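Take a look at this chain, tokens included, and explain the fold to me:
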Amino acid sequence: MPLAPVNAEAELYVIGAGGHGRELHAYIQDLRNAGWKGNLRGYLDDGLIPGQHGRLNVLGPINALAGSRRNEFPACYITALGQNPLRREMVERLTAIYSEADFFPWSLVHPLASVGEDVETGAGTCIAPGAVVTANVTIGRHCILNVRASISHDCALGDFVNVNPAATVCGWVAIGDGAYIGAGAVVKDRVSIGAWSTIGAGAVVIHDIPPNVTAVGVPARVIKSRSPLA
């Protein structure tokens, strides 16, 4: 799938005009101040009427461009939805509505993020201000590395992962698709977090966490399990 680098002259749409959407608006302004030459065309959101919502220009629901003139494309999008299952559902809907050649995911790396050597970032991922990614790290598609999140060397993050503000992931950690790492959580080196699991805010993970569970506390313990996502 094609990927527009952050310094490309992209025609960009943001999917979702809630709290994370407002954050992305600020991040994009910071990118522009740092020299980005792209164009933020507006927001697509199923839950808001078209028009100006604060600083955000909502153009319509996510299918609003489906009947657009061909000169609307090619264009890029980035999702602004903090809930991992919802973000995956939205990407699936976008893929069904638009051709990948016309409308494809764009990754945002904030100018104040620190991204080191041999870091691979998947399409559609957002790396927020103050986030640190050190070396030899793989980050999947449509992930969120939030403000001051820290990912150490030799980690692998799957698709649709959300690492919340000030969470710390030590070296050699594997995080499965859709996992949610709460604010301020610490994940010890050489453990794994299963797909679609949730680590509570402030938890300290010292042992492997299986898929599809919620773990909280110091040390983190599983308190809830749920059915796997389809």
